[in-house]
Amino acid sequence: MRTLVFAFLLSVLPTVLLAEKVALVIGNAAYEHVSPLANPTRDADAVSAALARQGFDVVIATDLTRSALYNTLRDFRDKADRADVAMVYYAGHGIEVGGQNYLIPVDARLSDERDADIEMIKMDAVLNQLSGAKKLKMVVLDACRDNPFVNKMKRENRGRNVGRGLALVSSAEAATLIAYAAAAGEVTPDGPDGRNSPFTSAFLAALDRPPSDVRILLGAVRDELSRTVPGAVPFVYSSLGAEQVIINPNSAQSEPERPQAAAAPAPAVQDEAQMLRDYAKAEFSGTVEAWEGFLEAYAGQSSHMLFILAQRARKQAEGAQIAALPSPSQAVRQSPETPADVPAVTVPSTAGPLADPAPPLLSREELKRDLQVALKDRGCYLSSIDGIWGRGSAAALSRFNRAAGTDLKLDTNSDPDLLAAVLERIERSDGVKCAAVRQAPKPARAAAAPKPSSNTPTAKPAPAAQAPEHAADSEPPKCRNKYGTLYGSDGGVNVGLPLCR
Question: 435-454: b or e for each residue (b if 16 or more CB lie within 10 Å)?
Fold first, then answer.
């Protein structure tokens, strides 16, 4: 009889209450080679306690070196293989190098992007240790803080492929969910000393809400973070199916919310990778039409992070489009016959849900000329504005890259879309100024000596004065190439045949 009662209870209890859930919570704060962080250890303690209340078997680890982090992940793998739900919650520094995300141990020494695989833990290694979980593999990254390692590598010009924040994961195996504290390439504050980070605070608040599907829970995290940190947009990558997964069954409400009583959620994205590719395509174009095509194609995903980012990008593109319009006085000068009261005609878009972006309105030569003007405004371009992309223009773009920490590349055959994208990126860098490059003064023309008369004896030239062999305070030779740009020991452009004095 007792066995029958136990079997009956098993049949009526929600499966989520019976699921085995394990979590590894890591807080890295005491960094040895950069300034320590204030909150990750405190965040790890708070998250561990909250997950334990929700029935997780929690392993907490703080201030891990590289070897300790590897060993901790290896030990946790055995728990994950036996669990239905396996989670890693990481608070600390993270970094993106060449499109790959890394967790940074406390003993990492990073002076070059090539140190990445030697000094840090790749995100793929973390996901691989969770691969045995049956229902959900979940990684939560509160690692999008302003990163001093990035600044150091940028200053030393050894981090051309290093990005701010973290990159989006474009693919992962099924039943995987990855939550970022900020959108791709963005950072979020660590928060005031003595308190939890804003993202961790929002995550803790969401865990205390009535039980709900993990995707709804993370939507509540996004809403709370957006309220406390204006402009912050956390991002969630999900390859979950239609089945609900609840990680907070023990919070305020005794039973999980029934799906039929809740508001109908937006249909799941059939192909997250395709949505990400479509977003990247619209972002590369940067036009209002491209963003509107994306938003129309994914109108049913209004709560998805990429949809929200696309709405913001469309507003920015609309503002840039308005700013590019000529002033009224310019319009009158250009078209004196056009009546002032003729209304603007809007041509409706005939593009499909995600058509190819419209071609740029300017020709390739006009775009090159505009690029030269933009680079000249920032002190990077030294030659005349001619619309020809040659060595001087390429050198100017290199100076801009050094000043802005970017890696923009163009050549004489670059297509108009790429030219327009680079121009838009440069024009958004209002505060960037290139280091001054001095022009070499033109040598004074020597006065022509008078021709000696036939009656005047020709004097022998005096021997040239010998310069001292060791002039302690002598200046380095000043050189210029045949185009007049100074180069040598005080910097500049090392192009052309040198003429020294």
Answer: eebeebeeeeeeeeeeeeee
The dihedral formed by the CA atoms of 257, 260, 273 and 162, expressed in degrees to the nearest 10: -30
Strand order in the sheet with 486-487: 486-487, 479-480, 499-500
pLDDT score recorded for residue 176: 87
Q: Give the pLDDT confidence of 292-339 residue by residue, as tens digits.
A: 999 889 887 776 777 777 887 888 888 777 766 655 445 444 544 444
**Separation CA 417–CA 429 (nearest Å):** 19
Residues in the chain: 501
DSSP letters of 31-82?
Answer: -SSSPPPSSHHHHHHHHHHHHHHTTEEEEEEES--HHHHHHHHHHHHHHHHH
Distance CA 293, CA 350 (A): 10
Domain 13-260 coded CATH 3.40.50.1460:
yes
More confident residue, 487 or 244: 244
Report which of 300, 229, 239, 226 is spatially closest to residue 271, judged by C-alpha positions.
239
Rounded Cα–Cα distance for residues 36 and 25 (Å): 19
| Residues near 135 by beta carbon (within 8 Å), at least 6 away in sequence | 19, 84, 85, 175, 243, 245
Per-residue pLDDT reduced to its tens digit, 142-163 = 876 555 665 555 544 444 444 4
Contact (Cβ atoms closer than 8 angstroms) between residue 20 and residue 84: yes
Where would I find the beta strands (DSSP E) of 364-480? Answer: 479-480
Which string of DSSP letters, residue by residue, matches 252-292?
A: SSSSPPPTTTSPPPPPPPS-HHHHHHHHHHHHHH--HHHHH
Q: What are 385's two structure tokens?
A: 């504005």
Question: 445: which 2 tokens?
Answer: 């023309």
Taking residue 259's Cβ as centre, other Cβ atoms within 10 Å add up to 11
- Domain ranges in the chain? 13-260, 280-328, 364-427
Q: How far apart are CA 152 and CA 30, in angstroms?
A: 18
Q: Are 268 and 241 in contact (CB under 8 A)?
A: yes
Q: List the structure tokens of 225.
A: 């973070």
Other Cβ atoms less than 10 A from the Cβ of 346: the count is 6
pLDDT at residue 36, rounded to an integer: 86
| Buried b / exposed e along 321-344 (16+ C-beta atoms within 10 A) | eeeeeeeeeeeeeeeeeeeeeeee
List, edge to edge, every strand of the sheet that includes 121-122.
121-122, 100-103, 94-97, 162-163
- Among the ranges 207-216, 340-349, 479-488, which has the highest mean pLDDT value? 207-216
Measured between alpha carbons, how far is 289 from 349 in angstroms, rounded to an integer? 8
Backbone φ and ψ for 103, nearest 5 degrees, come out as -95, 140
